[in-house]
Write a structure and sequence with these properties.
14% of the residues lie in helices and 29% in strands. By secondary structure, the protein is α/β, with parallel strands linked by helices. Strand 24 and strand 25 form a beta hairpin. The longest helix has 22 residues.
């Protein structure tokens, strides 16, 4: 199949398979949509800092401070994605990254506190409705998949002084680091200072407020390790 071969080359994956049950009409509609997205991507490529391959741009995508955005091969920004790359390190996408519909990514919040930025690794898919706040820095590794409505916060407000308004007490920033090969369920919230090891699975709706070791299965509010993926592997 022609489309299957094209995708194999784009993904550099000789084992990629296209579902054979799609009709000719299905394939035509998808192909036309992708062609339009590539056309929009050519326009964005004129403004971004660096791009190594195709850029697929959905409808109503907004990218501010595009000169601080770098993209690897075959970046997909779906409909209504909103990106503000203003930050020290900018926003960096690896190869074959996709950002789902209605997602918001930004490196700086209030203009008086310039943020660090966001880095997303190769073959990572961020599902619809994500909110990635990169003021303190967010690093997401390779081969990460997420459910919809993920929230990642890399900044906290100071609130210890009872005689001063919270907004005047400043912020703390540690940053968030998510390892490779993680599966993060829908509606997960990850707070500043958290480091998540490689191979973790986080249940939908969890609130992760502390760091987690590699290959953990995590759930709850606040989240905790309920088991490890290595249990029973050698039994």
């Amino acid at each position: 199949m022609v489309i299957e071969n094209i995708i194999r080359k784009l993904k550099n994956d000789p084992d990629y398979k296209w579902d054979s049950t799609y009709s000719v009409r299905d394939l035509t509609v998808v192909s036309l949509m992708r062609a339009v997205q590539i056309f929009r991507g050519f326009w964005l490529k004129l403004f971004i800092k660096q791009s190594q391959g195709l850029v697929f741009i959905g409808r109503n995508v907004k990218v501010r401070h595009a000169y601080q955005l770098t993209a690897g091969k075959n970046l997909i920004l779906d409909d209504n994605v909103n990106i503000n790359a203003l930050s020290y390190d900018g926003i960096q996408f690896g190869d074959h990254v996709s950002i789902g519909k209605n997602s918001i990514l930004f490196g700086t919040g209030i203009i008086s506190y310039k943020g660090k930025g966001i880095k997303i690794g190769n073959r990572t898919g961020i599902n619809a409705g994500a909110y990635l706040a990169g003021q303190g820095g967010i690093i997401i590794g390779d081969d990460v998949i997420t459910g919809p409505n993920l929230q990642v916060f890399s900044e906290n407000h100071v609130f210890a002084n009872l005689t001063t308004t919270i907004k005047e007490q400043g912020v703390t920033r540690i940053g968030v680091n998510i390892g490779n090969n993680c599966w993060i369920g829908g509606g997960v919230t990850i707070l500043d200072g958290v480091s998540i090891g490689d191979g973790c699975v986080i249940a939908a709706g969890s609130v992760v407020s502390k760091s987690m070791p590699a290959n953990s299965v995590i759930a709850g509010v606040p989240a905790k390790v309920i088991r490890t993926r290595t249990e029973g592997q050698n039994g």
